[in-house]
């Protein structure tokens, strides 16, 4: 048995040890943790228009990429010479002539079957503080779009061209890269049942500037599968789709470029509508402005053209007559009407109006010309009396009708598709 003195000594020893342990723990908790090395914040590419002019001094001498590379000890392969097809060359020339429209998200839409975008970029690489410009990049982005009357297909020819650079000694512009990233979506609510679009196997290209300089162009094809002719069953296999392109620009010392999302954004429609659209199937750019153009100097349709001109510009000279009358088609679009029964109802209503104004004209060469046309949803039975009728020569009236039908088929106009009417002198 231990003595009371020995027990007390042991107790004091235990208390001392516990106190030392607590002191060690407290000291350890109070000691700051070792500092962790943090990577420096990267700079970023931004649009040059957002950079103060003072920061751009000295970065206003664009140098072709190949020249820059030679001066910095690099050698770029010569650009690959590729002869562009005539349709591409023609579209590029016309696109350049419509520079303002071409420099938009939708681009310049020449027709239901051709569109293009040409967007010049001027980007500045700023340091991590956003106070110093350390590089500048210029290039042109092109996208040519081709849809087809007769095929459920859309082709895009994309490119990055005319690359010029300037960089501070701390930057190597040959390591900068540009990317084009395509994606698509489907508007199922507007499409017919089971809408599908097949994207190309390669929908993105992200490469160093030197690769773009050597091979500027690349191509993509989107298609929509069809199930054969189902239009007699009421299924036109319409697929409304949007193709979007995101632009990326990068440097090893830069954060991702954030202003390139949705840099290109056209809308297309695939269909298998049958003979009502001309060729049985096809694809169109739906944002194209479709116009029926007729001239008052064209002897075949001069009376039809004059009637439409009066209806659009001098409605007080037309019948039915009422104060404040306006007639659509010049600024407000007309919309195609496919239903034959409704077309007949429009004609019957218009003929009654002609007979009301001019009496019985049977036995003459005259016919009742109506505008808006019977084959539009704005025809005389719409109920707003915003239409006009006039007796004109039958040959003229029939020639005008043929022009209208040609416009429908040449543009793959389906039921409800909008168009305008333009009369020239």
SSE arrangement:
Blueprint: H1 4-30, E1 43-47, E2 63-64, H2 65-71, H3 86-97, H4 99-102, E3 108-109, E4 114-126, E5 133-147, E6 153-167, E7 177-186, E8 204-208, H5 209-214, E9 217-223, E10 239-250, E11 254-255, E12 267-271, E13 282-285, E14 291-295, H6 302-313, E15 334-335, H7 340-358, E16 366-371, E17 388-393, H8 394-410, E18 418-424
Which key features would you list for this structure?
8-stranded mixed β-sheet; elongated; 425 residues; 5-stranded antiparallel β-sheet; 18 strands; alpha+beta; disordered N terminus
Walkthrough of the structure:
The strands form 4 sheets. Strands 1, 2, 3, 4, 5, 6, 9 and 11 form an 8-stranded mixed beta sheet that branches. A 5-stranded antiparallel beta sheet has the order 8-7-10-12-13. It has helices at about 5-30, 65-70, 85-95, 100, 210-215, 300-315, 340-360, 395-410; strands spanning about 45, 65, 110, 115-125, 135-145, 155-165, 175-185, 205-210, 215-225, 240-250, 255, 265-270, 280-285, 290-295, 335, 365-370, 390-395, 420-425. The chain folds into 2 domains: about 45-285, no CATH class; about 290-425, no CATH class. The chain is built from 8 helices and 18 strands. A hairpin with a 6-residue loop joins strand 4 and strand 5 (about 135-145). It has about 425 residues and is α+β, with helices and mostly antiparallel strands. Mean pLDDT is about 90; it is low at about 1-40.
Helix percentage range: 10-25%
The structural domain count equals 2
| Low-confidence runs | 1-40
Oligomer state equals single chain
**Rg, please?**
35 Å
Q: What do the pLDDT scores average to?
A: 90
Q: DSSP helix count?
A: 8
Structural class designation: alpha+beta
The overall strand count is: 18
Overall shape: it is elongated
Helix/strand order: HEEHHHEEEEEEHEEEEEEHEHEEHE
Distance between the termini: 130 Å
Strand coverage percent: 25-35%
Largest sheet: 8 strands, mixed
């Amino acid at each position: 048995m231990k003595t009371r003195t020995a027990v007390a000594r042991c107790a004091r020893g235990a208390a001392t040890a516990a106190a030392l342990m607590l002191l060690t723990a407290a000291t350890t908790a109070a000691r700051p943790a070792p500092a962790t090395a943090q990577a420096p914040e990267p700079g970023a590419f931004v649009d040059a228009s957002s950079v103060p002019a003072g920061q751009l001094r000295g970065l206003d001498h664009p140098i072709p990429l190949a020249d820059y590379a030679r001066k910095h000890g690099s050698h770029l392969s010569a650009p690959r010479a590729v002869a562009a097809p005539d349709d591409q060359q023609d579209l590029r020339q016309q696109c350049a002539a419509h520079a303002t429209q071409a420099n938009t998200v939708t681009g310049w839409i020449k027709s239901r079957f051709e569109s293009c975008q040409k967007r010049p970029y001027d980007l500045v690489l700023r340091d991590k503080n956003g106070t110093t410009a350390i590089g500048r990049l210029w290039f042109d982005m092109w996208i040519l779009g081709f849809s087809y009357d007769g095929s459920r297909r859309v082709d895009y020819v994309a490119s990055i061209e005319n690359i010029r650079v300037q960089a501070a000694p701390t930057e190597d512009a040959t390591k900068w890269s540009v990317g084009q990233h395509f994606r698509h979506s489907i508007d199922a609510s507007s499409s017919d049942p089971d809408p599908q679009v097949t994207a190309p196997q390669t929908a993105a290209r992200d490469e160093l500037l030197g690769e773009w300089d050597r091979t500027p162009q690349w191509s993509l094809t989107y298609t929509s599968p069809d199930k054969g002719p189902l239009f007699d069953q009421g299924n036109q296999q319409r697929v409304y789709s949007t193709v979007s392109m995101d632009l990326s620009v990068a440097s090893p010392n830069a954060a991702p470029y954030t202003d390139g999302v949705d840099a290109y954004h056209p809308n297309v429609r695939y269909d298998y509508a049958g003979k009502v659209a001309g060729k049985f199937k096809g694809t169109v750019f739906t944002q194209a402005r479709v116009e029926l153009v007729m001239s008052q100097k064209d002897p075949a349709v001069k009376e039809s053209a004059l009637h439409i001109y009066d209806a659009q510009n001098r409605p007080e000279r037309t019948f039915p007559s009422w104060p404040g009358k306006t007639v659509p088609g010049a600024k407000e679009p007309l919309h195609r009407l496919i239903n034959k029964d409704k077309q007949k109802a429009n004609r019957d209503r218009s003929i009654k109006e002609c007979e009301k104004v001019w009496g019985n004209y049977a036995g003459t060469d005259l016919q009742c010309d109506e505008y808006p046309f019977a084959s539009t949803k704005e025809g005389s039975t719409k109920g707003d009396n915003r239409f006009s009728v006039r007796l004109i020569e039958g040959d003229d009236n029939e020639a005008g009708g043929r022009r209208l039908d040609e416009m429908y088929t040449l543009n793959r106009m389906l039921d409800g598709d909008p168009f305008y009417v333009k009369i020239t002198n």
